[in-house]
Amino acid sequence: MSTQGYELNVESRNVFGKGNARRSRKAGLIPAVVYSKGQEAQAIFVKEGDWAALANHDFEVVTLVEGSKKTNAVVKEVQRNYLKDYVVHIDFNAIEA
Fold first, then answer.
1. What three-state secondary structure class fits 17?
2. How far apart are CA 21 and CA 88, in angstroms?
3. Which domains occur in the chain, in start order?
């Protein structure tokens, strides 16, 4: 696996539920969660185009960038709808350098 650093622009998510997630996916945003030891999980959105570009690479650590806040994370799970070929949800685990 490559050790090159990749950055992924994210935005905070404050809407929840099946209907809101569906509307967000239609708008090109993938719901995601960043889990961190000893802290609350952070709900975020990842832009579909940014994720598609990153998913084509072999990476270990991705830097999640939200404004001036940067979080190093690894991908825990990517949930896909294989019949309609789109990403439903992404789980990240935050790591400390």
1. coil
2. 9
3. 6-94 (2.40.240.10)
Please give the backbone phi and psi of residue 45, each rounded to the nearest 5 degrees, phi first.
-115, 140
CA distance 84 to 16: 22
The Cα–Cα gap between 64 and 73 comes to: 7
User: The pTM is what?
Assistant: 0.82
Measured in residues, the chain has a length of: 97
Beta strands 42-47 and 69-81 are unpaired
pLDDT, tens only, 48-95: 888 888 888 778 888 888 888 888 998 899 989 899 888 899 999 998
Taking residue 41's Cβ as centre, other Cβ atoms within 10 Å add up to 12
- Residue 33 near residue 44, CB atoms below 8 Å: yes
Decide: helix, strand or coil at residue 68.
Answer: coil
